[in-house]
Structures are given as C-alpha cells and as structure tokens.
TrEMBL record:
Family designation: Belongs to the enoyl-CoA hydratase/isomerase family.
MF term (GO), any: delta(3,5)-delta(2,4)-dienoyl-CoA isomerase activity
Organism: Suillus discolor
Pathway: Lipid metabolism; fatty acid beta-oxidation
Name the UniProt record assigns to this protein: Delta2-dienoyl-CoA-isomerase
Gene Ontology cellular component annotations, sorted alphabetically: mitochondrion
Gene Ontology biological process terms in this record: fatty acid metabolic process
Amino acid sequence: MSSLESKYIKISNPAPHVLLLELNRQPVNAFNTEFWKEYGRTFDALSTHPDDIRAVVLSSAFPKVFSAGIDFQGLINLGSNNTTDPARRALLIRADILDIQHAVSAPERCPIPVIAATHGLVIGLGIDLISACDVRYTASDAKFSIKEVDVGLAADAGTLAYLQKITGNKSLVCELAYTARMFSSEEAEKLGLVSRVIQGGRDAVVAAALQLARDIASKSPVAVSGTKRLLLHARDHSVADNLEYTATWNSAALQAMDLQQSVKAGMAKSKESPKFLPLKPKL
C-alpha cells in the first residue's frame, strides 16, 4: 500500500482486504490545501487500485484528536488573488470551495465502504469529513463542534448538506450549527451522526471499526459495492426511481458467481464464509 501513502496520510493493512487510513498532520490534523488535496486523491485512487480492498477505516494517528478542522492560515488565504473585481474574485473563491467539497466527499464516491472511527476533538472540517463516510463510530471521549460560525462563515464543505439527510433531528442540527457549541459522543449518537459509541479512546474505537471492516470484507464485494451504490441513489431519488435503478443494477449483478457461492454456503450451513473473487480481478 506504499503507493497510496502520502505526507499526511498513513496507510496500513491490519486485516485481509481491510485498510486503515490515519490522518497524520502534526500537531492536530488541521487541514491545509496540501492535506485536503492528498485526502481526496487517496480515496479517488482507491476506486481504481488493483489490490483487493473491501473495507476502509478512517481514523487519526494522534491519541487526543481526530481533526481540529481547517488550518486558519489556509482559511485566511482562501480565494486570495490579485483581482479587485468582486465578481471575478467570487468566481475564484467559488472554485476553491468546490475543490474542497470534491475532496471531502471522496469517501462517498469510493465504491468501498468507509468507516469513520472518531475520538478526541472532532472540529469543523472534521465533521465534514466523517459526514461523507458510510458508517461512523466514535469513542466515548470524543467532543464535536460545527465550528464554522465562530470563524465567521457557514459550514461549506459538507456538514450542512449531509446532516439533515443522515439524522432526523433537524432541531438539534440547527441548534448545533447556529451556536458552534461542543457536543459529546452521546449527543452525537442522539443526533444520528454516529451509530455506535465505544467506551474508551482511540484504540478502542479503531478496534471496533476494524472488526466491523473485517465483517464487511467477508461478504460478497459485488453485493457490498452494489448496496452502497443503491443506498446513495435512494437517498437522492424517489422510491419509484430507485426501484427502477435497482432492477437495472441487479440485472447485471445477479449474474455474478457470488450469489451461487453464498446460497451454497447457506444451504450447507458452513461455518466458514465463502471465498469471493476480487471485485476487480487482476489481468
């Protein structure tokens, strides 16, 4: 996996078909331009990587912080240019914001399930990052904040777009976004931002996320990748549209050998999971 590792992202392979991606910019994983560009490129590269990767865990390399959000110097320089014309400056700033949004949403584009394992401080852009992941676990020591209003702007990299779709508590979303107040792991679970609170800190939540990743990796990669695609389509389309899309998708996916292998293993009541071919067989 050395081909994927970069200056600010550590990558390891703790279990078959499972990757652990650790944010690794000292001292608090504050995102500058180089960092968020690396982040987006890494997840986009996973989409076409030849290795048989079936689940990814995203965490931090540091024990007390997941991410402190955007680097303040980078924020001040956002959209800086030589033009004084407001319309032209706005176009350049808009392009910068769109680039950040594209990078932050890369886990959603990735066909592989991505599990966020948060702990410590999860501030501002840190919430944007995990909102684009498929599953979110958190350690009980985590503290969250939608921090952007405290620095004079509305959150613009994903939090406001995602949160009302991943939680049914619009009132709490508004309260947290309007005030930037810190909230606990328990409140994050109540909000629906995370699905599990793991007692402990970084090591405990990463262990739980890796166990989930191993479970996912044991399933048919055709089925898991298809499920991710269909869930995302359902979020953004009507029921009727999604049913038609699913029929078209599965007209191809049902022809995979994975279905026969799974059915045979189930009928035989085998204690061992069937062995599936990689999603992208090597030529």
